[in-house]
């Protein structure tokens, strides 16, 4: 038998991909309902809070810093790894805070779930995404905690060659990049329909 067939499959990674597929279908359904409502009501106003631009910049930067963190982890540059993974976590928190700020902007304009159809879709889409992002933030928190718990080079090296720790960083990275791409799709979609 070939090596690829006998290699042990990673069930956690498979489960993560299944959950990503399920989440993608959920968002696709909400976007489908939105498009249908927009065709039924051509005057649908879709508000885009200014804070969402900050959210978008923060999450794009966070994907870049997480990619750099993975590189530093593999290269055994553990001080750089700790810095970039901490910055990724900080950018994730900025994303969450700016989303909440965006909701405050909408509420300040009296845009609520019950009085604005377009606004209700913005709340639902960003709220669902926020729930997914919160899961990613928790995973990043574990990664950051582990990174700073193993401060000496020897501890960091032992940690870095341990397969479960490598897997944790890999799965966190996959999920975080999914959350990033998903937000970009939602943001572009909302911008298109706001025009």
Q: Topology of this protein?
A:
Layout: H1 3-6, H2 11-40, H3 51-74, H4 78-108, H5 117-149, H6 153-160, H7 163-194
Could you characterize what this model shows?
By secondary structure, the chain is mostly helical. The protein has one domain: Four Helix Bundle (Hemerythrin (Met), subunit A). It is 83% helix and 0% strand.
Number of strands: 0
Q: Give the N-to-C terminal Cα separation.
A: 57 Å
Domain unit count: 1
CATH homologous superfamily name? Answer: Cytochrome c oxidase, subunit III, four-helix bundle
Distinct helical segment count: 7
CATH topology: Four Helix Bundle (Hemerythrin (Met), subunit A)
Strand content: under 5%
- Largest pleated sheet: none
CATH architecture: Up-down Bundle
**Helix percentage range:** over 70%
Low-confidence stretches: 1-7
Keywords:
Four Helix Bundle (Hemerythrin (Met), subunit A); 195 residues; mainly alpha
Short description:
The chain is an all-alpha fold and 195 residues long.
């Amino acid at each position: 038998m070939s090596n690829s067939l006998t290699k042990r499959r990673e069930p956690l990674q498979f489960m993560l991909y299944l959950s990503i597929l399920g989440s993608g279908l959920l968002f696709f359904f909400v976007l489908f309902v939105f498009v249908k409502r927009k065709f039924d009501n051509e005057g649908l106003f879709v508000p885009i809070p200014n804070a969402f631009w900050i959210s978008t910049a923060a999450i794009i930067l966070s994907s870049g810093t997480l990619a750099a963190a993975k590189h530093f982890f593999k290269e055994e540059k553990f001080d750089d790894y700790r810095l970039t993974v901490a910055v990724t976590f900080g950018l994730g928190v900025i994303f969450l805070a700016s989303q909440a700020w965006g909701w405050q902007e909408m509420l300040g304009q009296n845009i609520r779930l019950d009085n604005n159809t377009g606004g209700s879709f913005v709340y639902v889409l960003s709220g669902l995404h926020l729930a997914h992002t919160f899961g990613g933030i928790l995973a990043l928190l574990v990664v950051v905690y582990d990174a700073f718990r193993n401060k000496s080079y020897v501890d960091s090296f032992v940690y870095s060659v341990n397969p479960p720790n490598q897997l944790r960083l890999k799965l966190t990275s996959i999920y975080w990049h999914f959350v990033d791409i998903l937000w970009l799709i939602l943001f572009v979609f909302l911008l298109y329909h706001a025009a």
